[in-house]
Backbone:
């Protein structure tokens, strides 16, 4: 028997906080990805051409509440979904990169079964879409990657036995966490408290936006607000995957590609710099480096980013 | 207590007690945990190749296998199965268990051998020897990125889960990732040789492990005798 469960709380139709330029999606529905219920959100006219947005790890589709309406206002039907375990999608028993890709394929097949569509991926969502563009190029007409190109982590200058000790702590810590996941809950708090916690990972985003995010990305229960993300998930981790492996897929991409990197390094980004990526750019690819912007550049400077990505998509269209 | 059910997150794991403490020839000997291969399930009785172990014997059904939960939508990784094995370790050494043992010995077949190696490193102070044997899923997937693709699979909810078969059959296994667990085991284990390879087939990750200090190679019988003799 499968014990995974639908999230107990859904986002209210109208946010209880407002943020200048932010707007709730025009439509919400669910897509089944082999038994895992994925929440899909759309902005814009249903008859407009489709544009896909893919969020990053520990984010959710509603983090596009500022960016997506601007794209919709320029004539696009913008489609985003909550990854499994995030936002309003089902908390699954298992999570993996492959599973996230299959969920993406389920949503893209639902909205555009026969045509390639332009895609914007942010952070982990951008890295996922590089792999999908390589594996199933017929689905993606053009790809924009916003600060989601992983690069080789700098290896700290420590002795081998120190590295082993660090890994031992990381692995044991993760296993200890797994031993408690059956009963874990996210820590409750007020809207202000959750915004403060989020602010530690998003230090460049303003307070008003962070509080707005709480009201669309968390749920309220008797003892306070909790982020909707599955409490079994944990930031970081270990495994055989190497960030630089994503770069190996870039040169072969045939669709127009735009990579966006930023100058301000933040905890949720990879800290990739242009010289890491430039040698791997595909034939029809280019890179933009935004000075003075952080990992969430599409939230910091949404109008500039809309102009930048639509210049590419309108050329393709 | 033939089968005990453990909870690992949203998964119900079946831990089969094939030989209980009171049936063991030497009740002072620590438990032997059997980890099955990819697509297999735990045996119903003590298999002939493990009879020589003098202590209690338990066998775990991994997620998606045997009597354990078959989840929806896949998402398998060897690290998640490591956490399954860790749940069994906790059950066999925890305060609620009849055994007073603070450690176990692990015998893994195929995929279970790879998971056993990870457990040997991750919980080194509690794992008194890990034996790696041939079996389904021993090789795993590539050692670097491939052109693999992604498709939904027909799934009737019965074990073995087809997602487990596909995802764990192509799980990336870079040799230096495997050797990092050997080094964890050697650093944290009370034994000089915490890992013994009995497998005939040596995929790249296992060949790399064999090249590390602290990894022995022997027959299964000798490996069981050697770890049992540690008391």
Residues:
């Amino acid at each position: 028997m499968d014990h995974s469960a639908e999230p107990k709380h859904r986002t209210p139709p109208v946010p209880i906080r407002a943020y200048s330029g932010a707007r709730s999606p025009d439509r919400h529905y669910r897509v089944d990805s082999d038994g895992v219920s994925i929440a899909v959100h759309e902005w814009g006219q249903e008859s407009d051409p489709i544009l896909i947005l893919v969020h990053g790890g520990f984010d959710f589709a509603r983090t596009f509440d500022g960016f997506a309406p601007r794209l919709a206002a320029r004539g696009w039907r913008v489609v985003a979904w909550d990854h499994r375990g995030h936002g309003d999608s089902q908390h699954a028993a298992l999570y993996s990169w492959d599973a996230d890709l299959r969920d993406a394929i389920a949503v893209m097949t639902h909205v555009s079964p026969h045509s390639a569509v332009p895609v914007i991926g942010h952070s982990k969502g951008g890295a996922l879409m590089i792999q999908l563009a390589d594996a199933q190029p017929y689905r993606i007409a053009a790809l924009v990657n916003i600060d989601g190109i992983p690069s080789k982590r700098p290896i700290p200058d420590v002795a081998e036995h120190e590295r082993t000790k660090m890994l031992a702590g990381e692995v044991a810590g993760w296993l200890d966490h797994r031993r408690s996941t059956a009963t874990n809950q996210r820590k409750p708090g007020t809207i202000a408290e959750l915004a403060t916690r989020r602010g530690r990972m998003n230090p460049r985003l303003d307070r008003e936006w962070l509080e707005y995010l709480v009201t669309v990305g968390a749920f309220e229960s008797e003892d306070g607000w909790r982020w909707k993300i599955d409490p079994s998930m944990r930031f970081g981790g270990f495994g055989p995957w190497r960030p630089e492996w994503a770069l190996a897929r870039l040169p072969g991409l045939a669709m127009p590609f735009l990579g966006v990197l930023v100058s301000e390094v933040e905890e949720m980004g990879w800290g990739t710099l242009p010289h890491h990526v430039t040698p791997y750019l595909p034939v029809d690819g280019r890179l933009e480096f935004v000075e003075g912007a952080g990992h969430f550049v599409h939230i910091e400077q949404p109008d500039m980013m809309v102009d930048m990505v639509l210049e590419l998509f309108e050329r393709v269209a | 207590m033939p089968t005990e059910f453990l909870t690992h997150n949203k998964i119900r794991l079946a831990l089969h007690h094939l030989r209980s403490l009171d049936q063991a020839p030497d009740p002072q000997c620590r438990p032997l945990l059997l980890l099955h291969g990819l697509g297999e399930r735990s045996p119903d009785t003590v298999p002939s190749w493990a009879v020589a172990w003098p202590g209690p014997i338990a066998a775990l059904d991994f997620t998606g296998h045997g009597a354990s939960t078959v989840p929806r939508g896949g998402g398998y990784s060897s690290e998640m199965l490591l956490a399954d094995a860790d749940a069994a370790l906790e059950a066999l050494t925890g305060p609620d268990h009849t055994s007073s043992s603070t450690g176990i010995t692990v015998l893994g077949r195929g995929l279970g051998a790879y998971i056993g190696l990870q457990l040997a490193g991750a919980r080194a102070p509690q794992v008194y020897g890990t034996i790696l044997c041939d079996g389904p899923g021993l090789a795993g997937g590539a050692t670097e990125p491939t052109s693999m693709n992604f498709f939904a699979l027909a799934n009737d909810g019965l074990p073995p889960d087809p997602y487990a078969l596909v995802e764990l059959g192509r799980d990336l296994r870079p040799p230096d990732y495997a050797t990092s667990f050997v080094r964890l085991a050697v650093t944290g284990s009370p034994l000089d040789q915490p890992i013994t390879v009995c497998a005939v087939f040596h995929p790249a990750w296992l060949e790399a492990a064999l090249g590390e200090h602290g990894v022995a190679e022997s027959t299964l019988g000798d490996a069981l005798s050697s770890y049992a003799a540690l008391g």
Remarks:
- The radius of gyration of chain A is 19 Å.
